[in-house]
Amino acid sequence: MRLFLLSAALIGLCSSGHAAVLKSEPGEGQLRPGQRVLVDDGSCPAGQIKEVIGGSDRKYRTTIRREGSPRSVHCIAH
């Protein structure tokens, strides 16, 4: 049930023009690659908020092995 509610919240973030602010960072696999969410969990300095950008764990089977991109986390001005 909790996973369903989190998924519904993330879908709402993607479909609306206004970004909602989450209270905790989404779990692994909950963000699509490149998807951005704001998280107010108190880990950033005053006046800033955490921006989380989804990464990818895909590995491509080619002659050159390419790794996915890691999740990115930054504190930005709020």
Reported for the largest beta sheet, the result is: 4 strands, mixed
Estimated helix fraction? 10-25%
Overall 3D form: elongated
Overall mean confidence score, pLDDT: 79
How many structural domains does the protein architecture include? 1
Q: If strands are numbered along the chain, what order do they take across the biggest sheet?
A: 1-2-3-4
Rg, rounded, reads 14 Å
SSE pattern, N- to C-terminal: HEEEE
Low-confidence stretches: none
Distance N to C terminus: 31 Å
Structural class: alpha+beta
Assembly form of the protein: single chain
The total count of strands amounts to 4
Plain-language structure description:
The chain is of the alpha+beta class and 78 residues long. The protein has one domain (2-77). It has one helix spanning 2-15; strands at 21-22, 36-39, 48-53, 72-77. Strands 1-2-3-4 form a 4-stranded mixed sheet, with no helix packed on it. Strand 2 (36-39) and strand 3 form a beta hairpin. The longest helix is centred in the first third of the chain and has 14 residues, at 2-15. The protein is elongated. The protein starts with a helix and ends with a strand.
